[in-house]
Design a protein that fits this description.
180 residues; HNH_nuc; elongated; endonuclease; two-stranded antiparallel sheet; NA-targeting_endonuclease; alpha+beta; HNH endonuclease
Amino acid sequence: MLILRLNKAGAPQDWLDIYQAARYYAQNKVLFELGNQHRTLLGGWNREGQQSQLRISSIIACDGKVVQNGKIALTNRYLFRRDNYLCLYCGNQFRSGQLTRDHIIPRSRGGKNNWQNVATACARCNHQKGARTPEEANMPLLAVPFAPNLYERFYLMNRRILADQMDFLSHHFSQRRAWL
């Protein structure tokens, strides 16, 4: 279970493992908790025979520096996840190893390597399109490529998002894509 760490303004900052989250609790840096899922860590025993316990929420807001870095690296892993592992030309779903990154305006023709100019494509469609635009190849895109916002970035970064974490993140997703 990964814990979603927010800054004091409520914006996502990081995914933490349970022990990193426990450190924030031990340092009294947790300002508030969200979500309804919790995990309990058991510690040592005291003289009275009582075991210490630390209850950790799935979403915690922590004190500290507010960092607003909304940039997300353009990697195939995140790209394929953004596009739900669908070829945006033929509409079929594939495993990650069967997909490629297609530049809508080909790089050989001045196209940029950015979120708005790339789409997930199967190898067959990417080869068929070649160094042409979708219009020239008569292969229209099935969805409009977009740059993920801060909340969508955190969705892309974690494969095992808990229901309450997804509920928190999804309320801030852009209208361009629903990953629900």
